[in-house]
Design goal:
Elements: H1 16-37, H2 45-49, H3 53-72, H4 75-85, H5 106-126, H6 132-155, H7 157-160, H8 169-172
Helix pairs in contact: 5-6
Keywords: Membrane, Transmembrane, Transmembrane helix
Transmembrane segments: 107-129, 135-155
GO molecular function: phosphatidylinositol-4-phosphate phosphatase activity
Length: 173
Amino acid sequence: QRLGVLHVGQRIEEQADFEKIYKNAWADNANACAKQYAGTGALKTDYTRQRTQWGLIMDGWNSLIRYYKNNFSDGFRQDAIDLFLGNYSVDEVESASPLHVKKDWKFLALPIIMVVAFSMCIICLLMAGDTWTETLAYVLFWGTASFGTFAIILYNGKDFVDAPKLVQKEKMD
């Protein structure tokens, strides 16, 4: 009222058009900030606008993408932030780049084997064989293969995570 936007006696809650514009601007700003920070749109922006089933599904999808990015593809971005903020200082004496770390074959092969084995297990369940023993044998084989590769990946989990590489030596101790 002091700024002349509302007349005397008018309440902000009565301004449906303004509320809609304000909530959309708020949600759009949240999306922009979340994309910069987490790599996906903000969660629950549809709640700010109007909660829907599709918004709930998108929140789940964005959470899965965030989990993947945070664990398997975010190390380089954290390195860039640390370098930019001065949390890591480049040692001029060191000639080798700490960013170049050669990955072993298992980093690509094991996840592919696990996905293929799990998919085959599901296919064997859906497309039953001539006898139940044949189906059971296939399901047990592919289930064991998928569980075995998952166990190997889990055991070597720290090797699969894309951790930042620009870590000061003092912080590592």
